[in-house]
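Q: I'm building a small set of examples for a reading group on sequence design. Run inverse folding on the following structure and report the sequence directly after it, with nothing in between.
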């Protein structure tokens, strides 16, 4: 019989001992983390052999013991040494250039990743289109260009360069080390919203990852431009050189601000995502041109009155994403329970009839002793908030108010930034988000003032909506053709400063601000209204520097959208003709407003008991 080679036997024994030791180590590690062979697809991951501290796991549904590390971070989960294990590592899972292999991989969040890729938070499509139009590079404010293409452009136009340096850092295409100072440090793509901001500033090795998105993750980006996240919290940005005011504060990024009226929803403890639907934020898979087209939530969806198509039984609601959300929250809806819908039929899944809740879960009755018929559940804290319905009173049924949006009356104030000057300084240096580095040239933006107060009124489609100065600017684009640009545009806005009490009648019907004229004196004389601007324009002395449109213009002024404009001359007249009556008739329930045209005719014909000497111009519609 041939003797078995001694050397080979030694090698076999050594290999068996090594494999046995590795098996024991893996088994012990699995026992320690609670992850057996049936977890994470039965994979063996050696990542946790080194990364076994509790603060190295994101926790929750994404805990390392549940899905491992490779599912999110890629790399080589079978390697024993650091260099091979970290080859191909993704430090920012959810970054949109690799999301298909991380968050968006099959079996995880492929549907959501696809929707986000087309959303306006990722593409910035509307922002890019408006900026390029305002600076004279495109014929209109609608376009299809997104930040992915813009950031990769080797020779950007002046407007593209302006966007790359001033705007791209908030949008999801840029990575964590190439983001705006306000949002840097919390990753990119999915992580921009689903990774905790505060944890990024601590010594924690891995930030928590959660489906619930609190307001601090919205603040970094949405405290700019329209500043809606600031306004919602009752903060108005100021300029450093403006006079000190009581209530002044410093924002999270050092900007000065002062306190103003808080949105009533914020006051009651509602967060941004409590109202906004999944399509508002993550998109619905369609390439919408502007944010107001992507947003599906409406005031009426919660507060009514609702049209027949905006409320239906849950049995007829076909929205698989909402069904998944309900399943994640371990809650359900009965087939006949009514569902409130936003635009495009998207259900407001956290709004329910009060009667559908168990008695012990219903919020207490209001101060008047009455219970609200609907309730809204907070998505981050689970609290139930009673929701009153819009009353069918004279204020809401007045014939002249039919075109008014809810925000046009119930927004307490709106921010404004007027007379902005933007210039390109070739001698300067500034961060370029396209290059991810400081580059030659700088865009310098200067504004004479930041303000806040009652908004102007605009027409968007067939509705009256709030508007603020959006592009009242001059721009010097350097040595390019058409280098000097001057525009005077207002932008429609939902200021997110909603209050139960509405703005006064006079703040619309007797206000130069509401009419879009700007600051100044509006004289409602016997011979007809006249406007004297507080600060006249040098080129148009009858107009205010911060104004949008003239009094009784030949044509309305344009806005930053094709369907947005100022009030035209007939609309201004119809608004102003109410003003002389307001000192005596300040309520919508007053009899003269039941048929205002008839009341005015009776007054001018001498058939009224009113002793008021009415100016003849109020009879002109």
């Amino acid at each position: 019989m041939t003797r078995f080679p001694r050397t080979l036997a030694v090698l076999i024994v050594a290999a068996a001992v090594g494999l046995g030791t590795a098996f024991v180590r893996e088994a012990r590690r699995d026992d320690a983390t609670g992850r057996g062979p049936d977890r994470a697809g039965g994979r063996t991951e050696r990542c946790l052999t080194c990364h076994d501290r509790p603060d190295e796991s994101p926790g929750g549904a994404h805990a390392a013991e549940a899905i491992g590390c490779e599912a999110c971070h890629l790399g080589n989960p079978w390697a024993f040494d650091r260099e091979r294990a970290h080859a191909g590592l993704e430090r920012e899972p959810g970054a949109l250039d690799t999301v298909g292999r991380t968050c968006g991989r099959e079996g995880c969040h492929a549907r959501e990743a696809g929707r986000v890729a087309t959303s306006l938070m990722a593409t910035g499509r509307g922002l890019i289109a408006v900026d390029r139009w305002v600076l004279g590079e495109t014929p209109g404010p609608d376009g299809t260009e997104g930040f992915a293409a813009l950031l990769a452009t080797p020779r950007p136009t002046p407007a593209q360069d302006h966007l790359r340096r001033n705007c791209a850092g908030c949008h999801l295409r840029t990575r964590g080390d190439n983001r705006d100072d306000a949002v840097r440090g919390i990753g990119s793509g999915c992580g921009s919203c689903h990774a905790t901001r505060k944890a990024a500033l601590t010594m924690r090795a891995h930030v928590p990852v959660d489906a619930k998105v609190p307001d601090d993750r919205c603040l970094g980006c949405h405290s700019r431009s329209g500043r809606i996240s600031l306004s919602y919290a009752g903060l108005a940005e100021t300029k450093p050189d403006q006079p000190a005011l009581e209530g002044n504060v410093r924002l999270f990024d050092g900007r000065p601000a002062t306190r103003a009226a808080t949105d009533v929803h914020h006051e009651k403890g509602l967060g941004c995502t409590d109202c906004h639907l999944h399509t508002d934020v993550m998109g619905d898979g369609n390439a919408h041109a502007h944010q107001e087209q992507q947003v599906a939530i409406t005031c009426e969806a919660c507060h009514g009155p609702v049209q027949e198509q905006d409320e239906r039984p849950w049995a007829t609601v076909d929205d698989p994403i909402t069904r998944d959300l309900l399943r994640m929250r371990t809650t359900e809806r009965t087939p006949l329970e009514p569902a409130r819908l936003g635009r495009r039929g998207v259900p407001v899944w956290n709004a329910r009839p009060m009667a559908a809740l168990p008695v012990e879960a219903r919020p207490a009755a209001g101060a008047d002793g009455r219970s609200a018929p609907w309730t809204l559940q907070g998505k981050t804290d689970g609290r139930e908030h009673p929701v009153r319905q819009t009353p069918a009173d004279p204020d809401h049924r007045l014939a002249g108010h039919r075109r008014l949006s809810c925000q046009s009356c119930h927004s307490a104030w709106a921010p404004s930034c007027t007379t902005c000057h933007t210039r390109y300084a070739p001698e300067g240096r500034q961060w370029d988000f396209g290059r991810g580095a400081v580059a030659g040239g700088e865009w310098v933006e200067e504004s004479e003032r930041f303000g806040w107060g009652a908004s102007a009124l605009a027409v968007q489609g067939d509705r009256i909506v709030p508007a603020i100065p959006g592009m009242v600017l001059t721009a010097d684009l350097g040595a390019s053709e058409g280098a000097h640009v001057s525009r005077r545009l207002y932008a429609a806005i939902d200021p997110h400063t909603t209050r139960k009490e509405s703005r006064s009648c006079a703040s619309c019907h007797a206000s130069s601000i509401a009419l879009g004229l700007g600051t100044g004196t509006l004289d409602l004389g016997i011979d007809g209204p006249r406007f004297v601007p507080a600060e006249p324009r040098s080129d148009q002395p009858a107009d205010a520097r911060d104004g949008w449109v003239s009094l009784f213009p030949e044509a309305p002024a344009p806005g930053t959208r094709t369907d947005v404009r100022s009030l035209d001359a007939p609309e201004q007249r119809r608004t102003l003709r109410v003003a002389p009556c307001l000192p005596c008739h300040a309520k919508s329930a007053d009899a003269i407003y039941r048929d205002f045209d008839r009341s005015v005719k009776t007054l001018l014909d001498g058939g009224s008991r009113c002793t008021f000497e009415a100016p003849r111009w109020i009879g002109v519609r």
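DSSP finds 25 helices and 16 strands in the chain.
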